[in-house]
């Protein structure tokens, strides 16, 4: 009674602390979001500018290397065109030492290749001896060199995507053209070097045609056509692209649907231009690193705030200690109760075996009334057939009387089958395992449950394979399990307007029998196989049917599970090992 007075004050104090805590957290979150947004914008602009400057420096270096290579190679044709030995070879038409001399020049100069053409355009000397004998009379290098007195630079397309870059010059003697010297410039080595970079690099001529590129498919195409996207971006890709570009300036271009930064510079040679496209990944990585540190700092600040606001909880530690002492006493009491319950469970396990047979006999008692009604119908029919047979015999019509006796014999067989079902159900099943066709067990169980099924309007659907489904089991105990599942389904559909029970038998690696009903379902799936667990009213059942069935299936090497169906109702699934052909032959 003494603790009742300060309770309202404690609640009001807790409410005040909670309100202030929520306000502080909200303000910290808003402040952190603003700082992150501003930092992201500022750092994105700064790192983008740094990345652009670095790209411009790289382009200046690439352009200088290309110009140096072109200028160094442009002098070679002039020197070779004045070589006395090459002029003498063309004059005498003796070319045995020409290729060797060109190879020596190549190793000293570092040119890609050198070829010597005679006046008719035939290759008479080459650093690549496989080219000897080929005729380049219609090649632009040969034609333009004969027409001009200076060195000619030619860009000729290859059979494969790409171009050959060559310097050519006519070899003259006494103002007569003796031949043409052609020196190739190895610009492809720069393309191969660029391929190892993350940036996309390309070189265009004065008309915008791509001459060199890190993407081979771009060579020979106009710039706009080379850069157009191959596939239209999906909605998800567009959303991700928008989320990635929200904090930066609009991109210079899109390369295959990805935003890139374009850097361009002029090459001091025939109006060529060199262009690089840099992705924003490096920028985003650096910005994200700084933002991650900011977010971590705000998280630490938020944690410190929680710590400072929660210090008042320390004053309640004395109360918690007192409550912990009470909990220890309660724990000791619970341990004693647990020990007593374990003792009761051991006694229950002993009594369960005795109650299993009692439960089956109780079920037999429930069936006896319906079965006696089933026996009365054949008895009444037999009496009618006997009276008819007596009259037929009196009228000397024995053939027709024999048909009546045959019907009486059929009724007697039916009554015997009913009584045999009762006797087999009342008898305990032993451990006599034998090959059993699961289809026959389902049929026998349905036949034994026929009186209960006829007492109500229940739709039964049965789906069985055409081939036998053989398992190794005790036939009586197996039928007992199926009967228990059918009785459980009947009880579950008592309040259903259109009750239905579906039996589905399938065979694969294991034999699976599904018994489904459209009843109220199972509320506590974890307890459904526990002994004495039942949802029936007192006097209608003791809750041992499913527990006994689970034990029987386990003894047969299988498994019995339960679940709620999607459309309502419950599904019980029994799995048993299939009896293979080898095991059946051994048996």
Automatic annotation (TrEMBL):
MF GO annotations: ATP binding; phosphorelay sensor kinase activity
Protein's membrane topology: Multi-pass membrane protein
Database matches in CDD domains: HisKA (cd00082), PDC1_HK_sensor (cd18773)
UniProt EC number: 2.7.13.3
Listed PROSITE patterns: HIS_KIN
Record-linked InterPro entries: HATPase_C_sf, HATPase_dom, His_kinase_dom, HisK_dim/P_dom, HisK_dim/P_sf, Sensor-like_sf, Sig_transdc_His_kin-like_C, Sig_transdc_His_kinase_DctB
Coiled-coil residues: 320-354
Residues passing through the membrane, by range: 21-43, 290-309
Keyword annotations: ATP-binding, Cell inner membrane, Cell membrane, Coiled coil, Kinase, Membrane, Nucleotide-binding, Phosphoprotein, Transferase, Transmembrane, Transmembrane helix, Two-component regulatory system
Keyword Ion transport: no
Catalytic activity: ATP + protein L-histidine = ADP + protein N-phospho-L-histidine
Subcellular location as annotated: Cell inner membrane
Example of a GO cellular component annotation carried by this entry: plasma membrane
Ranges where the Histidine kinase domain occurs: 370-580
Task performed by this protein: Member of the two-component regulatory system DctB/DctD involved in the transport of C4-dicarboxylates. DctB functions as a membrane-associated protein kinase that phosphorylates DctD in response to environmental signals.
Protein name: C4-dicarboxylate transport sensor protein DctB
Naturally occurring in which organism (per UniProt): Gemmobacter caeni
